[in-house]
Amino acid sequence: MLRRTAAGSVLALAAALSLSACGGGDEEGTGSKTIQVTLANHVWTENLKAALPEFEKSSGLKVELTQLGEDQLSDQYNVKLNAGTSDLDVMMYRPLQEGKLFGKNGYLSDLSEDVKGASDWNWGDFQPGPVEATTYEDKVVGVPLITETEVLYYRKDLLAKAGYSAPPKTLDELKEAAAKVQAANPGVAGFVARTGKTAAVTQFSSFLYSFGGGWVDDSGKAAVNSAEAKQAYAYYGGLLHDHGPKNVSTDMSWPEAMAIFTQGQAAFYPEASSLYKNATDPAKSKVAETVGFAPFPEGPAGSKPYNVPSWALGINEASENKDNAWKFIEWATTKEQTLANQKAGVPGARTSVASDADATSTYPKDLVEASAAGAKNGVGFDRPQVVKVPEARELVGLPIVDAITGKDSAAAADEAAKAFQALLDDEAK
């Protein structure tokens, strides 16, 4: 309760400062004084709500806020955006899940001139990966809010027992270390990761990129059967097959994989940085005192983990209140607001905030360093950039399961490429 109150006070102060800096108010008298803002249930939203009174007071605008769960949010967008409604102004959306669909259907307003014109706000401060994910056909359609990158969770004590003084820096070293740590610690798996064909796709993406592969090639054709992709499939699945938990399930998402790691049953675990408290909180983790974090290991193409925005703010193209909607977004994503949110445990997309010692003082130091490395070299997507994201994840995730179970993942990649290409062709019609 104390933490939330403190966060709210900081956000409120930040709101006042940011509004005084940009002038606030609707001086030109354009658009409604009431902004319709739809947000997801999230800690970021709760922090923002604490600052809204100051925003309204300073700007002279009124915010009518609708807050929904993810499924409800998707349902509302599906109904209202398809109907061309104008009673949505600001929209909190998922760039990786809905970005291509919203962009293709013209649901999101072009913010290119807005972000470039707000010099003090500084669009150049936003990390490249998240910016890539909120850009559609060279147009900025969203401002990234909450980011995460893939890092390597590991057990310091188990590595020390196996003779290691530092975590692996390359994928080759990771494979070697997983085998040695497993041999030195009977009953403990050398490696654990997501295994479900859809759930694993996001975490597998960093392996794919670091091997030099991608979901599509430069011409937009399916590339999940390239030599690099086949190597990545074989590597990811092979680590689980050879050094994963015994009788490992092929239907694990992050809660199941995280539970294996936090119960002390695995040495290495590649996962999203945003989930770190599950491993470091003694109430949730038996190994909280021995967990370390490292940058994603380098592959043949270097270290290329995903660095993605899980949520962003956009403006409904059909809105009749775009000027004031942008004022809200500009305020909600200032450096001051991002800093306050980061201190409250919500990583943002601004480079200056991610490197601010005060903003990251409550995070593990090695996690901050690992995340910074991922932000520098990260890729803005952790799944195929398509309209039918769930279907695509099913298709490209099948070779992962085959590799885990010891089947021919190369042949599975060839079949996945055919099916994925058919999906791409269908969407291109």
Can you tell me about this structure?
- The protein has 429 residues and is of the alpha/beta class.
- The protein contains 18 helices and ten strands.
- A hairpin with a 2-residue loop joins strand 4 (135-136) and strand 5.
- Strands 1, 2, 3, 6, 7, 8, 9 and 10 form an eight-stranded mixed β-sheet that branches. Strands 4-5 form a two-stranded antiparallel sheet.
- The chain has helices at residues 2-22, 43-59, 70-82, 95-104, 112-117, 128-133, 156-161, 171-184, 199-210, 227-243, 254-262, 277-280, 322-332, 335-343, 351-354, 365-377, 389-404, 409-428, and strands at 34-40, 62-68, 90-93, 135-136, 139-140, 143-155, 189-191, 266-272, 291-294, 307-315.
Key traits:
10 strands, D-Maltodextrin-Binding Protein, domain 2, 2 domains, alpha/beta, single chain, two-stranded antiparallel ribbon, 8-stranded mixed sheet, 429 residues, disordered N terminus
